[in-house]
Amino acid sequence: MSESAPKNDRAEFRSVSLGKIEPARSRHMWTRSAVHLPETEALVVTGEWDGTVTGRDADTLESRWTADHPGHAVGIASLEASGSGMDSDEQDGRAETIVVGGRGKTGTIAAYDAESGDRRWRYDTADDVGEAVKDTVFYRPYVVALETDRTGLYAAARRYERDGEARRWYSTVYAFDPDGTVRWTYETDASPIALDLDADGDRLAVGYNRCMGDHDTGLVVLETDSGDLAWTWDPGTEGDRRVGDVSIDGESIAVSSHGDKRGYLLGSGGAERWSVDLAVETEIDGETLYAYPNHVFAHNGRIAFVTGNTYAQAGRETGNRHPNEHRIAAFDADGDLVWADDVRGFVHGLATAGGRLVVPCAQNFRVRDPTTHRIRWFDLTSGDGDSERLGGIATAAAVEGGTVAAIEEPVEYHDDGELRGEYALRVGSLE
C-alpha cells in the first residue's frame, strides 16, 4: 500500500474555448457540463449549460457539428450503430448515435447522429416525472444517469418538489431500444443517483440516494429484458440517505453508502461479502465529522472508492476536516486496502476505461487552494498515475483508449475575488 501513489504517466493537453459560463464560487456547484469520447468514432463530444452539444475532431478539436439540446446538456453516452429493423449492411454504414441527457423544463433525452449531429429521436421525461413546480435548477426534471450496450439505452430521471415540510421525489428508470422506443419503465418515489450494467447486459443496478416515501431501499437490481425486479439491498441506516454510487464487476456489485459512509461489496442476491469504513463519523476537537463516499469503480476484483467534502453532524459549518475527505482508496476482492491517495477536491464523477480511472477535481471549499484544480488519473491495480493542473476547476471527464478529455470551468472564490480559469475543453493523450 502507498499513501501517495507514484506518478509516472504524463499527458500532453490541448484545448479549445467553450465560450462563457458563470464562474463557480467557493462551494461546489451542480453538474453543468459533460464530455464524451465515443468508442468507435474519432470524436469528442461536449455538452454545455446553455444546451449546446458539439462534436469535434478528436485530434484537431475543430467542430464537425453543433446541435441545440432542450435544456442543459449535462450527460452524454453513445449507442453502437444498430437498431430495430436494420440489416447488417445498414448497420455497417450507419454512424454511432450520441445520446444526451438534459436538465430543464422537459428533462429531455435525445439521440443525435455522430457524423452530422442531426437529431434521430427525442423523449421528454417530464411526461413521466412531472413538471417543475418552481422555476429553479433543483426543481427541474433531471436525467441523472445514462448507460448503453448493444441492445439499447438505460436512463434514470428524477424530479424534486417541496411543499412546506413535505419533500417528495418522482423518478423513472427507462430501457430504450436504439430507435428511441421505450421497452419498459420502473417508477418510484425515491431519487436515483447512479446506474450500471453488467458485462452481459442482463442486469441493471440502480442506486437511490434519497428515500423519503414508499420506496425504502438504496439499491435495486433489475432484469434488463423485462424491467422485473431481481433483488434489492439497503445499508439499513436511519434517515433518507442511502447510496452514492454502484459498480458491477462480474457477479459482484460494489456500493458506496451515504447512509453509514462505508463501502460494500455484494454478492448474488445482495449478500454482503465485506464492508469497509471510508469516512464514517469521527470525533475531532469535540465535533462529529463525516464525508460522503460519492463514487465507486469495480473492475477485475479491484474496487476504488472516492470520498467528498467534510460535514459536521451539528451543521454544515466546521473549521476541521475529516481525515478521509477527498480521498481515493482501492481494495482487493477480500476487502484489504491496496493503495490510497488524495484527490484534494470535490469530484463530480469518475471516468473509467478498463483499469484506468480519470478523476476531475473541482474546488475544495474549506481550504480554497487553487493547486487542487486538476485532472488526475490512476491505474486501478497499482495506483500509479499523474495529474494535469488547471487554472479553473475540472468538472467532467471522459477516457477512451489512450485519450482523456475534461471540461474546465472558471471559479471565483468568495473571499478573494480573483477569477481563475476558463470554460474550455481539455484533451490529452496518455499513451
UniProtKB/TrEMBL annotation:
Domain Pyrrolo-quinoline quinone repeat spans what residues?
50-256
Tree of life domain: Archaea
Pfam (any one):
PQQ_2
Gene3D superfamilies the UniProt entry points to: 2.40.128.630, YVTN repeat-like/Quinoprotein amine dehydrogenase (2.130.10.10)
Q: Which InterPro entries does UniProt cross-reference here?
A: PQQ_b-propeller_rpt, PQQ_rpt_dom, Quinoprotein_ADH-like_sf, WD40/YVTN_repeat-like_dom_sf
Q: What is this protein called?
A: PQQ-like beta-propeller repeat protein
Q: Which organism is it from?
A: Natrinema halophilum
